[in-house]
Write a structure and sequence with these properties.
single chain, alpha+beta, Aldehyde Oxidoreductase, domain 3, four-stranded mixed β-sheet, four-stranded antiparallel β-sheet, 4 helices, 8 strands, globular
Length: 147
């Protein structure tokens, strides 16, 4: 089972994880991560996330397929929001399931690293002082090197 959702609506991370976990036959491990919008420098009013419908889902599905080819997963779930999100809002969720915990953890980390750097989302930070597009961060690129 592989599910990818790109949406504006918020999601209930607990309900999503429960539903995902219940569907995983043969899994001995389920790992999840939920990312939230953070105000790193202070003054962030919102993060505006844009994407191209169809292209984004296809790109994320490709990243999921890479993970499935590397680890023996029984299931994956990726939810990523777009639109205007305020600090503290949930932005994304990744869940992976496998017979063993190492595969579930590694696959979840792989998905998170690749979603952060390779999924086609464009992010604009809106602050009290104006707005600007978020540039790629070298540490995010460095995280990909381990894979």
């Amino acid at each position: 089972m592989a599910e990818v959702r790109v949406q504006t609506e918020n999601f209930d991370a607990g309900a999503e994880l429960n539903s995902f976990s219940e569907a995983q036959e043969g899994a001995g491990a389920v790992v999840s991560f939920t990312g939230v919008v953070r105000d790193v420098a202070g003054g962030l009013e919102a993060m505006e996330i844009e994407h191209y419908p169809g292209m984004t889902e296809k790109a994320i599905a490709g990243i999921v397929e890479q993970a499935k080819s590397r680890w023996p997963l029984t299931g994956t779930l990726v939810i990523h929001r777009h639109g205007r999100l305020e600090p503290g809002a949930q932005i994304m969720m990744v869940a992976t399931a496998s017979a063993h915990r190492l595969a579930a953890f590694e696959a979840a980390e792989f998905l998170m690293d690749y979603l952060k750097s390779r999924a086609p989302f464009w992010k604009k930070e809106v602050t009290r002082d104006g707005a600007g597009w978020v540039a790629a961060v070298e540490t995010d690129e460095d995280a990909l090197k381990r894979w």
